Amino acid sequence: MLSQEIFKKRRQKLFDAMIDNSVSIVISASEHERTNDVVSAYRQDGNFYYLTGIKESHCAAVLFKRKDQCVYYFFSRVRDPLQCQWFGDLIGQDGAISNYGADSAFPLDLLDEKMLTLLSNCRRVYYSFGRRPEFDARFNAWIVTLRKKVRAAINAPHEITNLDKIVHEMRLIKDADELALIQKAIDIDGQAQIRACKTCKPGMYEYELEAEIRYEFVKNGAMHVSFDPIIAGGANACTLHYGANNQKLNDGDLVLVDIGCEYEYYASDLTRTFPVNGKFSPEQKAIYELVLEAQLAAIEKIGPKYAVGDAHKVSVEVITRGLCKLGILQGDLATLIKEDAYKPFYMHHLGHWMGLDAHDVGEYYIDGKGRPLRPGMIQTAEPGIYINPNTPGVDKKWWGIGVRIEDDVLVTQDGYKVLSAAVPKTVDEIEHIKAAK
Ligand SMILES: [Mn+2]
To answer: What is the domain-level CATH number for residue 167?
Structure first.
């Protein structure tokens, strides 16, 4: 678990980025009803957790800066004994101050009243507009109310700035404490991958593998998935976000397993593809080795010397060249790349940022150009080839093969570190795991 010192440092960093006479407002995630009266497992908003360390719903954190005085206000529910009886202990106002570093704490019911005071004559507000419509309306009402006080010597804020920009830039660079938690999530994920690979046999259902995976997650303290597991046997792997996980795993097919868990709020995201019966067919092996070659080549282009997009470009080149060699594409390599001929088979990007969210926040392009990679960034490298059944012009022997290989890669001072390097991925390694069971 991260110490309160870490959250305090993050808030200080945000205070440092704020102009004088300004206010930042951060809101906890909403609850979502799943069935009548029953809400889904609550997950705090990434930005809110990053700055407060608080996992409770119905909270607001307000950072107030004026004349170099920085005050951290916290709003949350009161510790009503009846509420606590049903839903567990609440932080309450005293707890926000003594355990979570707030300078001043109030019941959530006082938020409107207090915000009108805090926003009076404030120059700039930092707020993540457009993410919680119900809260946007409330924020709007504060501004409208303050505008009406112009003759009473009270001005509404002059500027509203997107808070996301500042916090997302902070979140993009992971520190040592975050890396330790991400590594733990990845290690658990890797164990689940190996368990799935060992357990799998023809005739099982996709959900049986999902059960093995979820068992491994929860047993190791990763209580939540970072996204719903994708367990895609055979041609189901050609559906990128397949999630039904209810089909039989057939002898002779591959199964694509794209899974992530959360450990202390930090995510992992790994994909492995392996033969249901333990042995790759020649066609499956050819596609698999091409995806692996593309992935390894792409990873070499991750590091401080490179920018977003460089690694993807290499994966496109390797895949297009390989598809030509296999006779799946025909023509001049440069032309095929220029004309996106690979896209029916490799239609997604190489990867995404990873951190508190599996698809972590942060801009990829700045002024239209891929941003330079910096130490502490983590991105996934997950090329794939998907050959839909009945693809015209493609030999039938390739139909229904879908392969993706995904690892989580940290940008370091001198290059990269594959954080999931311990999870087997060569054909030999995979066949060996299956044979050894
Ligand atoms: Mn991913």
So the answer is: 3.40.350.10
